[in-house]
Write a structure and sequence with these properties.
Number of helices: 7
Strand order of the largest sheet: 4-1-5-6-13-12-11-8-9
Order of helices and strands: EEEHEHEHEHEHEHEEEEEH
Number of strands: 13
Shape: globular
Length: 237
């Protein structure tokens, strides 16, 4: 049986045909990553939810992907918003926070991607760098215009990520102006970009709780992260 993987999504204004209205949507690259790796993809739209609702939702899934998207609301980690921060999607923040907590509690395999890594860190009590150019002096991680940066990522030996991809990801696709600052209490930093920015974290004492700051859905010739999630989510594992 193919494992069923839930993917979080955007809820914002969009257009299709004659319709111009609020929509739940997700770039199809994420769905392709799941289906090419052998899973069944289900989109999870932002909605009002509590802990019980999150557990009920996840009880029908075999795995979870927390996808990329807009900046996490700064108040969730005790900061005032930076002037360059995007307008937060509070409904999505709520949903993903509850889903992450439930997935950890239920030992459900999950993968965070870009924003997903930041949400995991905030969920576990960590903080974010709100605007990387303030720290590194340029926009090397987010060139703009939908053009992804590409750079090597070094992976810590002995980590789950190391078992999946080895000691280095040669050319990771990056598009982020925020990043993990102080890691959450039960997270381990397991990857860095060349200038020392955190690029992946794992949660301790979890069968598959991994989040990467880069975008593996943009390099689908390399399905290792998706395949590892699918393997961990196989019924009976």
């Amino acid at each position: 049986m193919k494992p069923v993987i839930g993917l979080t999504s955007y809820r914002q204004r969009g257009k299709t045909g004659v319709w111009d209205t609020e929509m739940a949507m997700l770039p199809a690259f994420y769905l392709e990553g799941v289906t090419r790796a052998g899973g069944l993809a289900v989109i999870l739209p932002p909605q009002e939810i509590d802990g019980e609702g999150a557990r009920n939702l996840l009880s029908g899934l075999d795995g979870l992907i927390v996808t990329g998207g807009r900046d996490v609301e700064a108040s969730r980690y005790g900061h005032q918003p930076h002037e360059m921060a995007e307008k937060p999607d509070q409904l999505r923040d709520l949903l993903e926070d509850e889903l992450i907590s439930a997935a950890i509690q239920m030992k459900l395999p999950f993968l965070g991607i870009c924003r997903g890594a930041q949400m995991l860190n905030v969920n576990r009590g960590g903080t974010l760098i709100q605007h990387l150019p303030d720290l590194i002096g340029d926009n090397r991680y987010q060139p703009g215009g939908g053009n992804f940066a590409h750079m090597p990522i070094s992976v810590r030996e002995g980590s789950l990520l190391h078992r999946i991809v080895g000691e280095q990801v040669e050319s990771a696709a990056l598009y982020h102006h925020q990043a993990i600052d102080e890691p959450g209490g039960d997270l381990q930093v397991v990857a860095y970009s060349p200038d020392g920015i955190v690029q992946a974290v794992e949660i301790e004492n979890h069968p598959f709780g991994l989040a990467v700051q880069w975008h593996p859905e943009q390099t689908l010739e390399d399905l290792r992260l998706f395949e590892a999630l699918i393997k961990a989510a196989m019924p009976g594992n």
